[in-house]
Write a structure and sequence with these properties.
The chain is α+β, with helices and mostly antiparallel strands and 407 residues long. It folds into two domains: 257 residues, DD-peptidase/beta-lactamase superfamily (Beta-lactamase), CATH 3.40.710; 107 residues, Methane Monooxygenase Hydroxylase, Chain G, domain 1 (Up-down Bundle), CATH 1.20.58.710. Helices cover 31% and strands 16% of the residues. It has eleven helices and 14 strands. The longest helix is centred in the first third of the chain and has 18 residues.
């Protein structure tokens, strides 16, 4: 009877911890235990340290997980050069567009509950976008079809950003201050009065689509985006440092951000004088999150595990499979001849040690990166804080990681 009671008590404690969002840490392993060469993987550390020594970056974090275990977790350089503060494993960084996969996963939890259909018009869920037309020099024209939810997730909506080009539509975005909108509601109200850049589904074009998707999540769920993220993703996955701002108690863990200068790196934004120190009114699902290497690797491992981590299921397995396959229409490509899934770029063509077929991932404006190779059961997170965006960190790490796989 005593054993039975103890088991019942243990079960009750486990349930309580699960409800509180508790979860274990991703286990560690030696590279050889998961089919990787320790000697080859060690080259990552020396390569990134060289980049720090050459002042190409102030600091960095690299994490590699294979077969469900972390085999490499290294920090480099400083998170603030003036204060001589080192990058640490729990350093908080600006993730910018690496927010997009999280927002897409949030929307797909609603899809799993049949509260959202991918090929329904966006205007069904966000009525402010009803009646969108397509830009034409003479006058806007009717679209060949409505913008769908799937279009938002794969950037084929016809929306734009207004900051990466100077087309007539980009100019309207700048004039209306779409990026500087007060909140998501005011953003979609303004977008409803602006023509699309191109016909829906005909081109891949980077845009505010994911911010619109965040607004859609709010409208369908009846929750503010930050609350929904906490309930559906951050708490279940124990992503304890991922949020839209850095609370006061964590500011000393926040990294400064840098940019290249004529005499080396110069400060772009100090850790203690940042707009991320206050809760924002505009909850940008497209680029507003801060996070840590640990937290984002947990998100990646959930995806590798087909939607689950330590018993917490975020998505159905078949949903993850769909999201991470190319979803672009025929003759529409991203990055030359590659594909795009729902929230991620997808490699449809192999590139040796630079890319594996089926690899998916994305990056952020402060030169943060992640990629997942399902065929290798591999996830990599590589973070720096350098603006404008540079692929140098990813380009340095990726071939070394792939070359370290021996089994």
């Amino acid at each position: 009877m005593k054993v039975v009671k103890n088991r019942a008590a243990a079960f009750a404690v486990a349930c309580m911890l699960a409800l509180q969002g508790w979860a274990g840490e991703i286990p560690r392993a030696k590279p050889e235990e998961v089919g990787m060469s320790d000697e080859r993987l060690a080259k990552v550390k020396s390569k990134i340290q060289e980049m720090v020594d050459d002042r190409k970056i102030a600091g960095a974090i690299t994490v590699v997980a294979r077969r469900g275990r972390i085999v490499h977790f290294e920090t480099y350089g400083l998170r603030d050069l003036d204060e001589n503060m080192p990058v640490e494993k729990d350093t908080i960084m600006r993730f910018y567009s690496m927010s997009k996969p999280i927002t897409t996963v949030a929307a797909m939890t609603l899809y799993d509950e049949s509260r959202l259909k991918l090929d329904e018009p966006v205007e069904k869920y966000v009525p402010e976008l009803k009646g969108l037309k397509v830009y034409h020099a003479a006058q806007p024209v009717e679209p060949d079809r409505k913008v769908t939810v799937r279009d938002l997730m794969r950037h084929t909506s016809g929306l734009t950003y207004g900051i990466f080009g100077n087309s007539p539509v980009d100019q309207i975005y700048k004039k209306e201050r779409i990026i500087g909108s007060r909140d998501l509601q005011s953003m979609v109200e303004k977008l409803g009065r602006i023509p699309l850049m191109h016909q829906p589904g005909t081109r891949w074009h980077y845009s505010v689509s994911t911010d619109v998707l965040g607004c859609l999540v709010e409208k369908v769920s009846g929750r503010k985006l930050d609350v929904f993220f906490q309930e559906r993703i951050f708490r279940p996955l124990d992503m304890r440092d991922t949020a839209f701002f850095v609370p006061k108690a964590k500011v000393d863990r926040f990294s400064s951000c840098y940019s290249p200068g004529s005499e080396g790196l110069k400060v772009k934004e100090k850790f203690n004088a940042s707009h991320y120190l206050m809760p924002p009114s505009f909850l940008s699902g497209g680029g507003g999150l801060v996070s840590t290497a640990r937290d984002y690797m947990r998100f990646c491992q959930m995806l590798i595990n087909k939607g689950e981590l330590f018993g917490a299921r975020v998505l159905k397995a078949e949903t993850v499979d769909m999201m991470t396959k190319n979803q672009l229409p025929q003759d529409v490509y991203w990055g030359g001849k590659n594909g795009f899934g729902l929230g991620f770029s997808v490699q449809t063509r192999g590139g040796g040690s630079t890319a594996h077929v089926g690899e998916y991932g994305w990056g952020g404006a402060a030169s943060t990166h992640f990629w997942i190779s399902p065929r290798d059961d591999l996830a990599v997170v590589a973070l720096s804080q350098l603006m404008p965006f540079s692929p140098q960190l990813q380009n340095a790490v990726k071939p070394l990681v792939y070359e370290a796989i021996v089994d």
